[in-house]
Amino acid sequence: MRGRYANLTRIRSLDPERDHLAIYQTMLRLEFPWDMKLGLNLAFNRSFSVPEIARVHVGTGELTERTQQRIDDTGLLMYEMVLHGFEHPRGRAALRRVNQIHRRHDIDADDHRYVLGCLVVVPTRWLDRYGWRRPCCHERRATHAFYRELGRRMGVTDLPASYAEFASWFDRYDAARLRPNDDAATIERATRALMRTRLPRLLAPLGDALVSAMYDAPLRRATRVTEPARPVRLGLHLALRGRARLLRWCGRPRRTPLFADGIRTRTYPHGYDIGRLGPRPTPTADRADPG
């Protein structure tokens, strides 16, 4: 398809460190919108499944009692930072809100690094396997640079210095800490219905099995999800690979960026106030933060 690689050509002309925001925006909004959104969902699901992190979320009740709103709030804060960057007023407001929310909880520094690692590694590996093309080296470096900068602004120190180093660190931490736990299983049951909405309507009868097939074996073990039948796993794999080939050879380059007319969610169909996203503020926890 003519022009299919125009964005990639432009990305390769940019500096992945200096221009990491522009590159990451292009990945999300033009090159891989469906895959990136799904990959980020899988990344958050994985981060919620580490016992220490899962315990915090179950304790607040946000993910189990207000599931749709909590997922929408998380997505909105993330997308505001990606769409606008950290220096734009909206990006700064989103970062400030993220820091206010996280300040409430005593979270281990490695757990913070793991959440960032999920956002760096999980979507990239999904694209490696099911994207219409694999991310190039500039895109990997830009992804790492974006989340390294987010981590810096959140006060997370000692992040791995490159994508490859972060992926290696992530795998070691994942193997050591992602283990079966009841809290992760509780969160997975609460969020599963939202994952099913990512599937085409024709596949709705197979929704639960297909969601399980999207998880890898360690995540299924951690969340106590039964392994789906091999035909389901193989069928999903072949369908996603077929979709990738179809997009590569027949897909038209996207002209209108994702979220060009704003971000719409079920919880906030008429708009939202960034400062009110997430759990309700408390006077002591949500003091002002410059972002």
The succession of helices and strands, N to C, reads HHHHHHHHHHHHHH
Helix count? 14
- The rough form would be described as globular
From the alpha carbons, calculate the radius of gyration and give it in angstroms.
19 Å
The count of strands amounts to: 0
Average pLDDT across residues?
93
Largest sheet: none
Q: Approximately how much beta-strand content do the residues carry?
A: under 5%
Uncertain regions: pLDDT < 50 for 5+ in a row?
A: 283-290
Q: What structural class should be given to the helix and strand makeup?
A: mainly alpha
The number of distinct structural domains comes to 1
Distance between the termini: 43 Å
Percent range of helical residues: 55-70%
GO molecular function: oxidoreductase activity
Region (Disordered): 271-291
InterPro entries: MPAB (IPR046366), MPAB/Lcp_cat_dom (IPR018713)
Protein name: ER-bound oxygenase mpaB/mpaB'/Rubber oxygenase catalytic domain-containing protein
Structural features:
291 residues, disordered C terminus, MPAB, MPAB/Lcp_cat_dom
Précis, in short:
Residues 51-249 form the ER-bound oxygenase mpaB/mpaB'/Rubber oxygenase catalytic domain. The chain has 291 residues and is an all-alpha fold.
Q: Can you tell me about this structure?
A:
The protein has helices spanning 6-12, 20-31, 33-47, 51-60, 62-65, 67-84, 89-103, 109-130, 137-153, 163-177, 182-196, 207-214, 217-223, 230-250. The chain is mainly α and 291 residues long. Helix 2 (20-31) crosses helix 3, helix 4 (51-60) packs across helix 11 (182-196) and helix 6 packs across helix 7 (89-103). The chain is globular, with a radius of gyration of 19 Å. The protein starts with 5 loop residues before the first helix and ends in a 41-residue tail after the last helix. Residues 271-291 are annotated as: Disordered. It comes from Micromonospora rosaria. One of its GO terms (molecular function) is oxidoreductase activity.
